Structure formats: C-alpha cells, structure tokens
C-alpha cells in the first residue's frame, strides 16, 4: 500500500516549493501508512470483536436474522452467579492454572539451566525438548487418548505391571484421572516454550558477573539466587503472564480428550462457554462468560506485572 | 549485545561470527565441569520424555490394526506394514485437507510477515503521535488470544460472508499473530544501527527499500521465528477452523483428523498414519528455522 504512494512521487522533479511540501507531508504520513495494514486487521478482527463481545452480552441475542434481540441488561451476568455448572468449570480452570503453570516454568527453567552451557549434543537435546511445542494439539491429544485408553492403553499396562494383576482404568471417563491426564498433556506440551524463553534469557546473563560471584566463594545455588535469577527476572515475569493467560483459556485438549465429561466434571470455562454458544446457541450468555474472563485475565496480568516489577526495584 | 551486532555489520565479508564458540570459552553458568555427567543424564531423560509419545505414534502407525488394540501393547512393530498410510491417504480426501492446510498456513505466514514488518518498521524507526499508546494497544491483544473472541469473530465472519472460506481463516490467523510478531520484530529492527540506515538513505534509497534491502536481511533470525510460530499456529489451529468451516471440502487437517474418529469408529492405525503425515511439515519448518531460532528469541526479546 505504502509502496504505491511512494512510487508516485516523480523522481526527477526540480526542487520546487510544492514538491517540497508534498515530500514533508509524505514524511509525516509514512509511519501511518506503514501501520495501516496492521491497524486495519487489528481493528477489524481483534478490537471490534472485543467491543462486540460486550455488546452481545447485554442482549438476548439470536443468531437467526430477522428475530428481535431484546436488551436484557446485566441479566446474563447475574445468571453466571446462579449457574452451578460454572462453579465446576471455574474450579477446574483455576486448578489447571495453579498446577500446570508453576510446573511448566520449573521444568522449563531447570532444563534451560542444564542446556545453557556446553554439553555434548546440546543442540540435539534442545531440539528434542522443543519438539512437543510444534506438534499439533489434535495429534498430541490423540496420542494421549490412546496411551490412556481403557483397553490396551500403555498406561494401564504399566499400572498392571506394578499392581501384579491386570487393571482396566478408564482414565478419561473419570473426573480426577481425566483432569490429571489433561494436566499431564498440557505440561508435556508446554514445557518446551518456557524452556526456549529461559534459554534465551540465560544466554544474556553476563558471565563475568556469575564468575565474580563464584570467585567470592558463593555456592552454586547462591549464585543462582542472587545473580542469575534477578538477571532473568523480566523473562520470568513475561513467561508467567503469558502462561497464565494461556492456562485461563484452556480449551483444545479438554475438548478432544474428555469433551468436558463425565457429566461436565472436567469442563473448563471456555469449553463450557463454547458449548453454550455453539451447541445451545446461547451466544449472549457465552459472551457474558467470555467478557468476565477477559476482564479477569487482563486484571491478573496487570497485577502480576505490577507486583513482580515493583519487587524488582527494592 | 548491540555491540556484537555492530561488529557483525561492519564486517559483512565474514560469515556471522561464531558467537557460540566464543561464549563457550567463557565460564558457564555452571562453572563446575564435574556436573557435566549429571547434566547429560538429565538431558537424556528430558529428551526421551519429550519424544516418547511421538516415537510411539510413529511405531503405531506402522502396526496392523490387529496389533494396536490388544491387552499387551507393542512398542516396536512386530509386523510392520504401510497399510495405514495407504488407507489414510486414499479414503478420506486426505490430500485435499493437506493442501487446504498448506494454503492456509502459507497465506497466514505471508500476510503476517509482510504486515508486521511494515508496522514494526514504523515503531522502530519513526516517531509519531501516540506511538507508544498504539504499540501497547497491539500488545494488549496478547491477553485476548484465540478462544476468547471466537463468538464475535464468528458473527463478524458471517456478516462479511467469509464463513467456510480459507481466506477468512487466513485473515483471522494473521490478525491473531500480529501482536507477538510486531513485538518481536520491533526489538530486532531497533538493533540495526541508525547510521547504517542514514548512509543507505543518502544513497537515495526510499523507505521501502530501506526495509526490504537493509533491515529485513539483517533481521532474518527474527523473521524466521515469526514465520515459524505463525506457520505452526495456522497449521495446527483447531477451534476457529472447527467453528468457521462447514463444508467437508474446506476442512483443514486438524478438523479432518478430528472427524476421522467419528467417521471410522476409532481406527487408530490410519489415524496415527495421518497424524504422522500432519506432523511432518511442522517439523520441517522447525528444522529450517531452528538455526535462526535462538538468536531471534534472545535479541528481539524481552528486555
């Protein structure tokens, strides 16, 4: 888009006042022209839908054209607090977040620490740990569905081996085991991302600082606590914020593995909202749930950044 | 970091300096050499856990269906066969879905790379009104990814008559990838020394030439990271495609795989064969971009 405008300027123009003014106008306009395509996509597919989400949530909204959509105020929101299914979904989402995020970060940082220095086959190990991240969710979900199948799954064989008799646990059809498989798969697939972020951060830690700490006689763990960790703090905050955002809208793995079952007991907030919208066509109620989630998630992010950054200065 | 970067620019004849080698001769984060064995063993364990499910999937894809669901699962195929691959490819217009996904992924990469480069260039090299506010508006979108906006996006796409269209998918995927891409590229573009751009401009280069001939070539690591993340996002995206695509001919691979289960009551063999095929492009893209990868993340990254 910008190129068209730029090329229109006649190249060999004598430096007249008009062309000079034109050139100045162009210089002022350039950044805006460069931004225009991104801004267009952003406004149309991100900003407008955010606004529309809140908008719909105040109506009793029907998908069918020509049907009257009555304004209902906050009633979709007040319904959230009366809906017992929401409580289960919110609890599952919270549990998912509290369990998967710290473990992912812990393993990610630990493996990054192991692979930051020279080691035989370092590049190979790094690639292996990152591979789950680039494997598609659908594929991963099916592998785990198979491993945890009640008939002939590897998980049952392993448990049978330890139990001494043959065991048939229907992992995905029970609340706790179903949730546990969902956590496991999410941690397994998520670790590589934290790993690569921490690896990049550790790379930037000034080695002479580390060495200085060591010369002073500090133990390895103390060096980590007082030199390395403070140095990669911005990355820790970034990874935490992004993982919390991601965990709060856990969807695909639940959708494929358990579909929220049995009886909604592994449902998360977004599988529940999705079901409300696209199975029961309660778009407005789903929009209300999503809007509350958006506010909570943004609030959480700001809070984390505030708290962790302010600790930085002290 | 920027110092090293400048050195690199000033000596264009030499290959990018071997930063890794230099770094290795410096003291490591674990100064003690004796930890090497422990680290190696741990790396082996982590690596094995990371690939075991995938290797198992590959193994299953070569087993005849009779061997797959038994009470004694086999880790290595005893009677290897390619029948699953033949079945997966021939029975389900699988080639069609593969091409659909490829079209969507490549289209998304193209649009994302071009559009976010232009925007990042503006943020990195120009000062204009509300610059930081606009930048943070883009960044804020990181907090509202995929699933969150699916309902209004669905309604929007209905209104634009883009349901059931791969182009509609491409536009949404590209939009969702913009914030992170712009964020990453801006940091990278800012690291290119200003003096270089000035001398380039003195030679009469115009804005877009500065971007395409100077800044983009110097930012290949970051562009590779953006391309890889975007490709994978589009290649594996599930919810949006599931919601927006109705007709079987427009299905992308993840959706097709999902229907596999329904259409053939758990035919695990062909399903895993299809899954292996679906994983190959992601792996190839990762391996191609891998060398640029770490530098891209660390340089563009989070300061």
Give structural notes.
The complex is a heterodimer of chains A (314) and B (303). By secondary structure, chain A is mainly alpha-helical. Chain A contains 14 helices and no strands. The longest helix of chain A is centred in the N-terminal third of the chain and has 41 residues. The N terminus of chain A is likely disordered. Chain B has 303 residues and is an all-alpha fold. Chain B has one domain: MetI-like fold. In chain B, α3 packs antiparallel against α15, α9 runs parallel beside α15 and α10 packs across α11. The longest helix of chain B is centred in the C-terminal third of the chain and has 33 residues. The radius of gyration of chain B is 24 Å and the shape is globular. The termini of chain B are close together. The chains are: A mainly alpha (314), B mainly alpha (303). At the A-B interface, α1, α2, α4, α5 and α6 of A face α3, α6, α7, α8 and α9 of B.
Task: Give the helices and strands, then pairings.
The complex is a heterodimer of chains A (314) and B (303).
Chain A: H1 2-8, H2 17-57, H3 75-82, H4 84-115, H5 122-134, H6 137-147, H7 154-163, H8 175-203, H9 207-215, H10 220-231, H11 233-248, H12 252-257, H13 269-278, H14 283-313
Helix pairs in contact in A: 2-14, 3-14, 4-8, 4-11, 4-13, 5-8, 9-10, 11-14, 13-14
Chain B: H1 2-10, H2 19-25, H3 36-61, H4 65-68, H5 83-91, H6 94-125, H7 131-140, H8 150-159, H9 166-190, H10 194-202, H11 207-218, H12 220-236, H13 239-244, H14 253-263, H15 268-300
Helix pairs in contact in B: 3-15, 5-15, 6-9, 6-12, 7-9, 9-12, 9-15, 10-11, 12-15, 14-15
């Amino acid at each position: 888009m910008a190129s068209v405008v730029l090329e229109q300027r006649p190249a060999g123009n004598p430096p007249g006042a008009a062309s000079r003014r034109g050139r100045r106008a162009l210089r002022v306009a350039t950044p805006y022209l460069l931004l225009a395509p991104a801004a267009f996509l952003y406004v149309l597919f991100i900003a407008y839908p955010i606004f529309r989400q809140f908008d719909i949530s105040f109506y009793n909204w029907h998908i069918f054209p020509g049907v009257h959509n009555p304004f209902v105020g906050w009633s979709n929101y007040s319904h959230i607090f009366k809906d017992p299914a929401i409580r289960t979904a919110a609890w599952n989402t919270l549990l998912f977040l509290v369990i998967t995020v710290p473990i992912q970060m812990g393993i990610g940082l630990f493996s990054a620490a192991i692979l930051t220095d020279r080691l035989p086959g370092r590049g190979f190990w790094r690639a292996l740990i990152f591979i789950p991240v680039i494997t598609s969710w659908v594929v991963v979900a099916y592998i785990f569905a198979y491993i945890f199948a009640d008939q002939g799954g590897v998980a049952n064989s392993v448990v049978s081996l330890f139990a001494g008799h043959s065991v048939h646990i229907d992992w995905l059809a029970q609340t706790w085991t179903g949730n546990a498989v969902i956590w496991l798969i999410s941690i397994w697939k998520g670790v590589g991302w934290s790993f690569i972020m921490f690896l990049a951060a550790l790379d930037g830690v000034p080695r002479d600082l580390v060495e200085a700490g060591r010369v002073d006689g500090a133990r390895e763990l103390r060096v980590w606590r007082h030199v390395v960790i403070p140095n990669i703090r911005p990355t820790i905050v970034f990874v935490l914020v992004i993982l919390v955002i991601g965990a709060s809208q856990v969807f695909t793995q639940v959708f494929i593995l358990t579909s929220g079952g049995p009886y909604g007991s592994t449902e998360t907030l977004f599988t529940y909202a999705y079901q409300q919208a696209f199975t029961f066509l309660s778009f407005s109620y789903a929009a209300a749930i999503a809007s509350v989630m958006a506010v909570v998630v943004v609030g959480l992010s700001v809070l984390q950044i505030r708290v962790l950054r302010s600790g930085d200065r002290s | 970091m920027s110092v090293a970067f400048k050195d690199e620019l000033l000596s264009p004849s030499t290959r990018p300096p071997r930063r890794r080698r230099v770094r290795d001769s410096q003291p490591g984060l674990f100064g003690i050499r004796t930890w090497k064995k422990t680290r190696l063993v741990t790396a082996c364990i982590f690596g094995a856990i990371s690939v075991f499910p995938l290797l198992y999937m590959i193994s299953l894809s070569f087993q005849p269906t009779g061997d797959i669901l038994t009470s004694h699962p086999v880790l290595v195929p005893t009677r290897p066969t390619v029948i699953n691959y033949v079945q997966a490819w021939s029975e389900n217009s699988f080639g069609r879905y593969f091409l659909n996904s490829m079209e969507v992924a490549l289209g998304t990469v193209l649009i994302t790379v071009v559009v976010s480069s232009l925007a990042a260039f503006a943020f990195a090299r120009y000062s204009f009104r509300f610059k930081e506010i606009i930048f943070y508006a883009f960044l804020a979108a990181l907090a509202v990814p995929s699933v969150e906006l699916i309902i209004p996006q669905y309604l929007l796409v209905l209104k634009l008559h883009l349901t059931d269209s791969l182009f509609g998918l491409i536009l949404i995927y590209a939009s969702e990838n913009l914030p992170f891409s712009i964020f990453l590229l801006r940091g990278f573009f800012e690291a290119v020394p200003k003096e270089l751009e000035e001398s380039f401009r003195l030679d009469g280069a115009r804005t877009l030439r500065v971007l395409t001939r100077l800044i983009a070539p110097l930012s290949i690591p970051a562009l590779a990271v953006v391309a890889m993340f975007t490709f994978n996002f589009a290649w594996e995206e599930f919810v949006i495609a599931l919601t927006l695509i109705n007709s079987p001919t427009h299905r992308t691979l993840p959706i097709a795989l999902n229907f596999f289960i329904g259409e053939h009551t758990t035919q695990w063999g062909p399903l895993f064969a299809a899954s292996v095929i679906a994983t190959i492009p992601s792996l190839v893209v990762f391996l191609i971009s891998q060398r640029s990868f770490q530098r891209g993340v660390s340089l563009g990254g989070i300061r």
